[in-house]
Amino acid sequence: MMAAMGMTMNLPWTVADGFFTFAMWAVMMVGMMAGAAAPVLLLFGAALAKRGAGGVPRAVLMFGLGYVTVWVGFSACAALAQWALHRAAMLSPAMAASSPRLAGAILIAAGAYQLTPLKGACLTHCRSPLGFLMTNWRDGTMGALRMGVGHGVYCLGCCWALMSVLFVVGVMNLVWVAALTVFVLAEKIAPAGAVVARVAGAMMIVVGVLFVAGAGVR
After folding, report:
1. pLDDT tens figures, 31-80
2. Could you give the angle at the alpha carbon of 21 between the alpha carbons of 145 and 146, nearest 5°?
């Protein structure tokens, strides 16, 4: 797909290359996070209906727009990161880190973040959308948009490090895209989601150390 966009590994990016990369990330992020966002959207719609509010579909749409806006912003950052790695010749043709040390560093950083209090706090908000709605409720269309942005920020805080793993396994590796999508959903809705997140973080650190150590003995 990326080859069809003309993004060869030995040529500088054009403006079109940058736009298509951003579009690719935006579509991929929205698709990956849609399942995780669905429960809070349904809960928000149900809460509006119980309050007798009018224009429920529009308010839900605005909530979703706020959520999407946050992830589109992340997509722009991811596209810039990909451009920087491309310019430094640190990406393989499969758009994965070509250096084991870089791959290991990404995994170690992502794994360490999984164990931080910030990750835990964001995951708690994502796992308890009712609590978020009760403490952050805003009336009106713009209120719905602000709530969507707020919840999207918590979602980003929960998942951005996991998305960076795509630079290790290959940005367009659809198997890993699907696996990360399932993992994000498990973190947020499985009974032991918080434990799953921490175990995965520890595993990423171990694998990252192995990458770096393996590179050091070559």
Report:
1. 899 888 888 999 998 888 887 766 678 889 999 999 999 999 999 999 99
2. 10
Given phi > 0 = left and psi -120 to 50 = alpha, else beta, which region is 53? beta
59, 51 contact by CB (below 8 A): no
Q: Cα angle at 48 between 46 and 53, to 5 degrees?
A: 140
What does the pLDDT look like over 110-121, one tens digit per residue? 999 999 999 999
Single-letter amino acid code for the residue at 56 = V
Residue 149, token pair as written in the block: 């942005």
pTM score: 0.86
Two tokens at 26?
């935006």
Q: What's the number of CA atoms in the CB half-sphere (13 Å) around residue 82?
A: 33
**Whose CA is closest to 210, among 104, 111, 118, 114?**
104
Are 108 and 208 in contact by the 8 Å Cβ rule? The answer is yes
- Look at the block and give the residue holding tokens 């007798």: 52
Instruction: Give DSSP secondary structure letters for 152-181.
Output: HHHHHHHHHHHHHTHHHH-TT-HHHHHHHH
